Amino acid sequence: MTLFPDLTDGILGESIIGRAQNKGAIEIYSHNIRDFSEDKHRRVDDTPCGGGMGMLMAAPPIYRCWKNITENTDFKKRKTVYMSPQGRVLTQNVAKEYLDCEQVIILCGHYEGVDRRIIEEIVDDEISIGDYVLTGGELPACIFVDCVSRMIDGVLSDSECFENESISNGMLEYPQYTRPIDFMGRKVPEVLLSGNHKKINEWRYKAALELTKKNRPDLL
User: Fold this and answer.
1) Is the peptide bond before 180 cis (omega within 30 degrees of 0)?
2) Residue pLDDT, tens place only, 56-111
3) What does each C-alpha distance from 190 to 133, 201, 218 come to in angstroms?
4) Distance (Å, rounded) from C-alpha 195 to C-alpha 208?
5) Each residue's pLDDT tens digit, 15-54
6) Phi/psi of residue 107, each to 5°?
7) How far apart are the C-alpha atoms of 37 and 86, rounded to whole Å?
8) Would strands 45-46 and 56-57 be described as parallel, antiparallel, or unpaired?
9) Strand ranges inside 90-124, DSSP E
10) Environment class of 161 (CB within 10 Å of its CB; exposed 0-12, middle 13-18, buried 19+)
11) Which segments within 63-216 are labelled E, that is strand?
12) Looking at residue 161, what is its pLDDT?
């Protein structure tokens, strides 16, 4: 649910997530909240009660949009998420909580946010992508969709594609290399060219551990 469906459609229609939609592994729809405004100018915002800077998205158009979605879909395992800097921070484990859902409805705020009453009425979870503020919830929503979708069967070619990546296994991923073997005097580690898979796995584990200690010791 967004004021800028072209933005979310453009991002989520590309690359792996776009191909996953084309083959039916996932379905993603962007619903324009303005379509549910009863104002002749399709306004969806108003000034905050009590004063203050900016405009606030009003509850009625959002509720009508949400009601239209829920009344026209029949899913028992459904959650509604509001992308908000006040929410719990998105992690791989948080994303895994949504793998059992049949439908996830995401509300993207804009301007100064949304009327708190709509959050209390329809939202099951508030999620943040980090401790900073953006102009709207569309980019965070796309990140959330991407993070969850790539763990769904049929989106990636194999579960190993995400299980061994940074964060997924509790550490950062080991360094990766490809051809040319020599790039500006920097060479691919010889062990990766040895064909000895036991030694390669040992090297990768050690390299991942060292990288994690250096860049993200909190993960350990």
Assistant:
1) yes
2) 999 999 999 999 999 999 999 999 999 999 999 999 999 999 999 999 999 999 98
3) 44, 13, 30
4) 19
5) 999 999 999 999 999 999 999 999 999 999 999 999 988 9
6) -100, 125
7) 26
8) antiparallel
9) 103-108
10) middle
11) 78-89, 103-108, 125-128, 182-183, 186-187
12) 62
- Nearest CA among 104, 84, 108, 128 for reference residue 34: 108
- Tell me the C-alpha distance between 31 and 141, whole Å: 13
Q: How far is it, in rounded angstroms, from Cα 49 to Cα 57?
A: 12
Confidence (pLDDT) at 158: 78
- Sheet order of strands, 125-128 included: 103-108, 78-89, 125-128
Mean per-residue pLDDT of the chain: 95
Q: Residue 163 has which token pair? A: 């299980």
- Amino acid identity of 116? R
The tokens describing 205, both together, are: 């584990």
Q: To which residue do tokens 């953006």 refer? A: 134
pLDDT(162) > 80: no
